[in-house]
Amino acid sequence: MTTPEPILPLTGIRVITTGQILAAPFCSTLFAEFGAEVIKIEPPVTGESNRGSVSFAQDNRGQKAITLDITRPEGAAVFRRLADRADVLVDNNRPGALEKWGFAPDTLRETNPGLVTVRISGYGQTGPYKDRAGFDRVALAFAGITGLTGYPDRPPVRPAYFVADYGAGMFAAFGAMLALRARDQTGKGQDVDMALYEAVWRMSGTHIASYGLQGKDRERSGNYMPGVVPAEQFETSDGHFLVINATTPRAFSKLCEAIGQPELVHDPRFAPGRT
User: pTM score, two decimals?
Assistant: First the structure.
């Protein structure tokens, strides 16, 4: 006997996406990985500009691809039929692009009231910066993470990964889940408006709270996290690096035993979790 494959939680959900490059494709792939049918719409002839790269293969996996010129009447008609049969539309063109093409979310919901639209951009669909292009590196700086990454006596350093793009993709997918849940109760779709910088800002921990309480902004501190010790990368005698995070009494006690200095547990200079 063979064990039947489990039914994935998003089986039966259909997603169409005009997303490109990273944040929106990643968001759409999260849907696909949990069972949704995802149809990716690309421009004819060239396809998405990122096509052919490792990133494209990774962040668009599980999606079906079609080419469609939605600026032509014939293509627009096909797109409208797809939207009429979709549960979710994911888009990360600049704010206003869907409206320019005649596909404003409210217009699409005239024939598909339950459609959930997910729109990812640099700074959101409204506000003074909405027309600015959105890039991961710029969003990282705008949200403050770049200014806090690196050493105080050196220039800021961008994180090694696309934190804003991937973070926005995850939050956008989560927002879509909330909208689908609301649709179960009301029958009506909603708009999810996700900005790249918002994802990074939401992950900034106690940064804003500490500023509000103390009136002081954090500064770059290298591998040391203020208020969290011992936790750092330590270079070993053979030229490698060892990551240690022993910031609870139990973990610190085990660390002291491991390095053969159990007496340090009672040394007030090394009380874990204190600066």
Answer: 0.89
Residue range 180-214, pLDDT digits in tens: 999 999 999 999 999 999 999 999 888 888 888 88
Q: Read off the amino acid at residue 162.
A: F
Closest to 168 (Cα-Cα) out of 63, 33, 19, 51: 19
Cα separation, 118 vs 158, in Å, equals: 27
Which residues pair with residue 65 across a beta bridge? 40
Sequence-separated (6 or more) residues with CB below 8 Å from residue 32? 15, 38, 61, 62, 63
In angstroms, the CA 202 to CA 208 distance is 10
Q: How far apart are CA 68 and CA 45, in angstroms?
A: 10
Q: Write out the catalytic residue numbers.
A: 165
Q: Are 130 and 107 in contact (CB under 8 A)?
A: no
Instruction: Convert 179-238 into a string of H (helix), E (strand) and C (coil).
Output: HHHHHHHHCCCCEEEEEHHHHHHHCCCCHHHHHHHHCCCCCCCCCCECCECCEEEEECCC
